[in-house]
Design a protein that fits this description.
Elements: H1 3-34, H2 38-61, H3 68-96, H4 101-124
Helix pairs in contact: 1-2, 1-4, 2-3, 3-4
C-alpha cells in the first residue's frame, strides 16, 4: 500500500474513532435517558455525530477546499445510507436477535465506515 493512501486511511480512522465515540455515547444516552428503542437511539446517535464527521473528513481526511454546499449535500446523501445501516443493524441485532445494545453499536461502528470511505473518496470529496 502506498504512503499517501496509508496517511489518508490513518486520518480517516482518526476521524472515524472520534465519530464512533460520539455516536456510541449519544446512542447510549438516548436509550437510557429517553428510554427509546435501540433502533431509534442508534439513529439519533448517528445524526448527532454527522457534523463532526463532515468537517473532520473534509478538512483532515480528504483535505479538500471548494464550495461547501455541494460537498455537504453529497455527504448528507452518503450519511443517509449510513443512517439506514445504523438503524437496520441495531434493529437486527438488538430487537430481532435480542442481543445487548453494545453489540449493535459495535457492529454499526465496524460496518458503516467501510461503505462510507469508498463513497466519500469516489464521490463526496472527489477532486475533479
Amino acid at each position: 500500500m502506498n504512503q499517501p493512501l496509508l496517511r489518508k486511511l490513518s486520518r480517516f480512522a482518526t476521524v472515524g474513532v472520534a465519530n464512533a465515540l460520539v455516536y456510541a455515547v449519544a446512542t447510549r444516552l438516548y436509550a437510557d435517558v429517553f428510554a427509546v428503542s435501540a433502533a431509534v437511539a442508534s439513529g439519533l446517535g448517528y445524526a448527532t455525530a454527522v457534523p463532526l464527521a463532515f468537517f473532520g473528513h473534509r478538512h483532515l481526511t480528504f483535505e479538500v477546499k471548494g464550495a461547501l454546499s455541494p460537498q455537504f449535500v453529497r455527504f448528507i446523501s452518503t450519511q443517509l445510507l449510513g443512517f439506514f445501516l445504523a438503524v437496520v443493524i441495531a434493529w437486527l441485532i438488538t430487537d430481532l436477535m435480542g442481543q445487548p445494545i453494545w453489540l449493535g453499536v459495535g457492529a454499526t461502528i465496524l460496518a458503516v465506515p467501510a461503505v462510507s470511505y469508498l463513497v466519500m473518496d469516489k464521490w463526496v470529496f472527489a477532486r475533479p
